[in-house]
């Protein structure tokens, strides 16, 4: 059995900077030596049910035979080749799949290398589009509070400036417009007053606004909030009325996570630009894509620059594209819609007991997303240790204990996962 030594753990603690962590008294990290299906195997042999799908990406589970076979076959041909002036079959077929899956007008594909870069590309597309139309004054963005779009500078500038983890960079980030967050939940009766803040900003500033960017239906790292599809419909209408582009950041919500293939489909709307990532390769490789319309792509290309000014080194990486093709084929061939309904039902029944706990504000579920929102922020290190001891991998943040399990998790395992969360929370809140 592969193990990770105590000396290696000490070296990790002293030298490796993990996501969102301090190098002074860092929180503990848990050594994983392998993964299979929906289980992570720790050094020493303990197995953990993975409730996070490795930050929402490993939708088919770990060590999937079809994805493994694709990776082996492609790496024997070429793992990487520059995309400038060169093309290859995996990228062509990935573009074909994405064009077929997404709404009809999204037919131009920019293959990026991470979700944050996909957002950067979308922002640059929107600004360069208006510049090509001789409207350089349209260079600002509007978004909604409690949003999260990534950790690179353009993406940070449209994250919530207070709750978006990037407040200390406020002075150096581009200044954009922030509307009040939607308050009406996914299943609640719609009232048009909920979009009044966004409408007011667009009415006042539309001449300088290039685009509205938002996470459709589900605000992820900004609070795991589910808002009304009617809000999204109204936002689309405002963009049409006041001549803004609509950018849908579907990096977390895309590929069936909310119960529709893309969250925009809950509202029946089509964005002008869509950002995709995370689940696109089934968690095997870093890859993302930004899609837009022929009108926008050709307008940019006819502008003064004559091209779109972006080109990552690993753009169109053939290994990642090949794996993405197999991942999307697995999803497309599966009964994904009834499967997501099954998962949602299991999450609702499994997590609902937490609603009766003192200290719990709300329990909410949508598709393959289950959220328990507490009244106070959790002690992450303490509760994480309790989850690991219970044999489950859940990574809370702030007031949120949430899960986004792999799509292949069966009902028995889902029950063990949710039961473990309930037991841990019960003990944590009483202590």
Automatic annotation (TrEMBL):
CDD domains: OAT_like. Its main location: cytoplasm. It is found in: Cytoplasm. Substrate binds at residues 55, 148, 278, 311, 395. Pathway: Cofactor biosynthesis; biotin biosynthesis; 7,8-diaminononanoate from 8-amino-7-oxononanoate (SAM route): step 1/1. Homodimer. This is Adenosylmethionine-8-amino-7-oxononanoate aminotransferase.
């Amino acid at each position: 059995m592969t193990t990770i030594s105590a000396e290696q753990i000490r070296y990790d603690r002293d030298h490796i900077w993990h996501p969102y962590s301090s190098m002074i008294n860092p929180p503990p990290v848990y050594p994983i030596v392998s993964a299979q299906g929906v289980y992570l195997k720790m050094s020493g042999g303990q197995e953990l049910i993975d409730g996070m799908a490795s930050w929402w990406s490993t939708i088919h589970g770990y060590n999937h035979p079809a994805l493994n076979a694709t990776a082996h076959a492609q790496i024997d041909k070429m793992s990487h080749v520059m995309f400038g002036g060169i093309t290859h079959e995996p990228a062509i077929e990935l573009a074909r799949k994405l064009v077929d899956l997404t709404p009809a007008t999204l037919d131009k594909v920019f293959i990026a290398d991470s979700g944050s870069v996909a957002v950067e590309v979308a922002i640059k597309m929107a600004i360069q589009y208006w510049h090509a139309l001789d409207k350089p004054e349209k260079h600002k963005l509007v978004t909604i509070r409690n949003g999260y779009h990534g950790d690179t500078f353009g993406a940070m500038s449209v994250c919530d400036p207070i709750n978006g983890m990037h407040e200390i960079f406020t002075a150096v980030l581009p200044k954009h417009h922030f509307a009040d967050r939607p308050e009406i939940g996914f299943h609640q009766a719609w009232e048009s007053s909920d979009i009044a803040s966004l409408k007011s900003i667009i009415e006042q500033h539309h001449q300088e606004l290039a685009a509205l960017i938002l996470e459709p239906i589900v605000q992820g790292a900004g609070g795991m909030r589910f808002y009304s599809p009617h809000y999204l419909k109204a936002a689309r209408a405002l963009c049409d009325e006041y001549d803004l582009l609509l950018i849908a950041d579907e990096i977390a919500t895309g590929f069936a996570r909310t119960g529709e293939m893309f969250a925009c489909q809950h509202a029946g709307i089509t964005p002008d630009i869509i950002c995709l990532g995370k689940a696109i390769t089934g968690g095997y490789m870093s890859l993302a894509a930004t899609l837009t319309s022929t009108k926008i792509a050709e307008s940019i290309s006819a502008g003064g620059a004559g091209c779109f000014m972006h080109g990552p080194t690993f753009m169109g990486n053939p290994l990642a594209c090949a794996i993405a093709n197999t991942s999307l084929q697995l999803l497309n061939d599966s009964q994904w819609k009834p499967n997501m309904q099954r998962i949602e039902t299991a999450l609702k029944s499994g997590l609902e007991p937490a609603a009766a706990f003192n200290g719990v504000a709300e329990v909410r579920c949508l598709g393959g997303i289950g959220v328990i929102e507490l009244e106070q922020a959790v002690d992450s290190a303490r509760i994480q240790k309790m989850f690991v001891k219970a044999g489950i991998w859940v990574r809370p943040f702030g007031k949120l204990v949430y899960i986004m399990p792999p799509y292949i998790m069966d009902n028995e395992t889902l029950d063990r996962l949710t039961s473990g969360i309930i037991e841990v929370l019960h003990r944590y809140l009483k202590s």
